[in-house]
Amino acid sequence: MASSGGSTTTVGDIEEDASQLLFPKEFENAETLLNSEVHMLLEHRKQQNESAEDEQELSEVFMKTLNYTARFSRFKNRETIASVRSVEGRFEDEELQQILDDIQTKRSFQY
């Protein structure tokens, strides 16, 4: 059932509101995409549209999202994006923090 604001939905006792990061149960274990991955997908869609015989105008939201992901995409090529995904989850948080602390310590000795 939608509330009067139109942006929240109540399911059982839980009120869903994406603006408050309260998502439906289906999103609990969902994998997210990197901005770079989203940009790659949108760029592919744009190229498909441009090469189509009956090219359609892309929506303003599509273009804004494409521009946003272009601006904030950290990784530019497919191989780099795949490498980032392969490293993800390789280290536990504590182990990664120890590595970062060690790097910082070594840097402080160099200067």
Automatic annotation (TrEMBL):
<dbReference type="GO" id="GO:0005634">
    <property type="term" value="C:nucleus"/>
</dbReference>
<keyword id="KW-0539">Nucleus</keyword>
<dbReference type="InterPro" id="IPR005574">
    <property type="entry name" value="Rpb4/RPC9"/>
</dbReference>
<dbReference type="InterPro" id="IPR038324">
    <property type="entry name" value="Rpb4/RPC9_sf"/>
</dbReference>
<protein>
    <submittedName>
        <fullName>RNA polymerase II subunit D</fullName>
    </submittedName>
</protein>
<dbReference type="InterPro" id="IPR045222">
    <property type="entry name" value="Rpb4-like"/>
</dbReference>
<feature type="domain" description="RNA polymerase Rpb4/RPC9 core">
    <location>
        <begin position="25"/>
        <end position="110"/>
    </location>
</feature>
<dbReference type="InterPro" id="IPR010997">
    <property type="entry name" value="HRDC-like_sf"/>
</dbReference>
<dbReference type="Pfam" id="PF03874">
    <property type="entry name" value="RNA_pol_Rpb4"/>
</dbReference>
<dbReference type="GO" id="GO:0000166">
    <property type="term" value="F:nucleotide binding"/>
</dbReference>
<dbReference type="InterPro" id="IPR006590">
    <property type="entry name" value="RNA_pol_Rpb4/RPC9_core"/>
</dbReference>
<keyword id="KW-0240">DNA-directed RNA polymerase</keyword>
<comment type="similarity">
    <text>Belongs to the eukaryotic RPB4 RNA polymerase subunit family.</text>
</comment>
<keyword id="KW-0804">Transcription</keyword>
<dbReference type="GO" id="GO:0006352">
    <property type="term" value="P:DNA-templated transcription initiation"/>
</dbReference>
<dbReference type="GO" id="GO:0000428">
    <property type="term" value="C:DNA-directed RNA polymerase complex"/>
</dbReference>
